[in-house]
Amino acid sequence: MGHYVKLILLWLTTISIIFILLLGVSGVWSDKEFNPEWKQHQRAVIQEKIAKAEESYEFWSNPEWGDPEKAKELENKIRGLKNKKLEIKQILLKGEGLWSNQENGPRFDRCMTCHIDEERIKEDHPENLPLPYDIYGCMVCHDGNGMALEKEPAHEHMLADREAMREARERSADALIKMWQRIAKLNPEKEIKLREVSFYGPTGEYQIYVGNIKCIKCHKKTHPEHVNLWSESKFKTTERIQKEPDFQKGDENYRKKCYKCHTTGYKEDKGTFEELGVGCEACHGPGEVYSELMEGEKTIEEARKLTRISFDYNIFSNCHITKRHEMRKEYFEW
């Protein structure tokens, strides 16, 4: 009899242990399923924003020195935050192909699920970014895994700030080229060559034009004949056209057409340029990253990788065509 009792007790103990283990596993699964990491993070951020808004409301609602309109605005903000729905937020990206052709399938960036403080995001990103995050997402500049909803996989290989981006991409041409390739893939409507996206710097902002003086400092030793020829001709092309009668008689819009080809770093949308004359960077593109790499003893070969991309002989066809000067007919008798 005692033997059977022991077996029953052993059986009950085993069943109890299995039940407890299953309960624990299901509890962990349930918590992860119904209270995932992203929800916990959203709650924490919302609670923090509510606390700050309530503190401000307490000040502005004071009958002695407060502002009723400001207090009402904060009251509405607090109500909105308390009723805010926890949800996955994502930016739909264009991808390598057109969705209308069912190419590449949907791609998305879910970073905004956790980074829900849009006010802070706007503070950390300058206005008029050439790669706005609400269109291109975050991965295009920050790397990481924007499709993940947990911090560890999402932040793997992530470049958190501009300093980290510069550290990674100003030492490695491959890292910068990888970013350029990513930008090109996110613009499937037209064929974009790496030459076009090479104007973006390591932080996703446009590269800085360093100017002829910096270029000549090194290249006068390696290519003296070329530098001397251009210094006496192309570098001074703006000075020459400014003396032409049509330039002097023409209005500002007319002159902008001249600047497009006779200056360096011309921005058509703003009508501004970086440097007078057709300088080195007019054909080779802005030299911010290239010059940084050339100044490092161990990164010269990295700089050479960029030259294979940033220079395109087709660039000449943008200016060296007869039609460019057709606008001058009204000022001359032919």
TrEMBL record:
InterPro entries in the cross-refs: Cyt_c-552/4 (IPR023155), Multihaem_cyt_sf (IPR036280), Multiheme_Cytochr_ET (IPR051829)
Q: Which SUPFAM superfamilies match?
A: Multiheme cytochromes (SSF48695)
Domain (Cytochrome c-552/4) ranges:
214-285
The protein's UniProt keywords, in alphabetical order, are:
Signal
Q: Does the keyword Signal apply?
A: yes
| Protein's UniProt name | Putative cytochrome c
What is the originating organism of this protein?
Candidatus Scalindua rubra
